[in-house]
Write a structure and sequence with these properties.
The chain has six helices and no strands. The chain is mostly helical. It has helices at 4-15, 23-27, 46-65, 88-110, 128-152, 166-172.
Length: 173
C-alpha cells in the first residue's frame, strides 16, 4: 500500500496552520508574567493547558509505542495540580517536553516501517492512525483554548490573528 499521501496529510494536520493556529504560534511571545494566570477561577492558565497537552500527548505516544506503559489516572493524572507553582524551570520543562514528544509523533508518522492502519500489537482495537489523529485533535482543541486564554488576558498580539480570507488562502496553495 502506498500511504505517502496519508502521511503527508497527517504531517500537515499535526504541524501546519491550514485550518487553525498551531501550538507554536499560540505560545509565541506569551508574557512570562501571565503563564500561570487564570482569567477566572473556573478556567485554566496557559501553563496548565500546555502541561495538560504535554501529559496527554506523552500518554498517547508512550501507549502507542510501549506495551509496558502505564497511563496516568483519569482524569486527575492528566492535569497538573492547581496549586503547583510555576517556575521558569517548570515552564521550560513543560515546553521542551511537549515539543520533544511532538517530534516523536512526527517521526512516527514519517516511519515507513509502521503500517499506520495496523492495530497496535498491545493496543486492543486501536490503530496507529487512531492514536495519531487523537494527538492532532487534542492538540488542536487545547491550542484554541490557549489562544482564548491569551485573548482574555489581553496577551494575544494583533499580528498573530489569522487574517487571510478563503480567497487568499486558495491563492497561496
Amino acid at each position: 500500500m502506498n500511504d505517502t499521501v496519508l502521511r503527508e496529510h497527517l504531517m500537515k494536520l499535526l504541524d501546519s496552520e491550514e485550518a487553525h493556529a498551531g501550538v507554536r504560534k499560540a505560545l509565541l511571545g506569551v508574557n512570562p508574567k501571565l503563564r500561570h494566570v487564570r482569567p477566572s477561577p473556573d478556567s485554566h492558565s496557559i501553563w496548565e493547558l500546555l502541561e495538560h497537552m504535554r501529559i496527554v500527548q506523552e500518554d498517547i505516544l508512550r501507549y502507542t509505542l510501549d506495551p509496558d506503559w502505564v497511563s496516568p489516572e483519569y482524569p486527575q493524572g492528566l492535569w497538573p495540580s492547581k496549586t503547583a507553582e510555576l517556575t521558569e524551570f517548570r515552564w521550560i520543562t513543560t515546553y521542551s517536553g511537549f515539543f520533544e514528544d511532538f517530534e516523536d509523533v512526527l517521526r512516527l508518522v514519517r516511519n515507513p516501517e509502521i503500517d499506520l492502519t495496523a492495530r497496535i500489537p498491545h493496543g486492543e482495537w486501536r490503530t496507529y492512525l487512531r492514536e495519531i489523529l487523537l494527538v492532532a485533535d487534542h492538540n488542536a482543541y487545547e491550542t484554541g483554548q490557549i489562544i482564548y486564554i491569551r485573548k482574555l488576558l489581553g496577551d494575544w498580539p494583533p499580528h498573530l490573528i489569522h487574517t487571510e480570507t478563503p480567497e487568499t488562502e486558495r491563492a497561496a496553495r
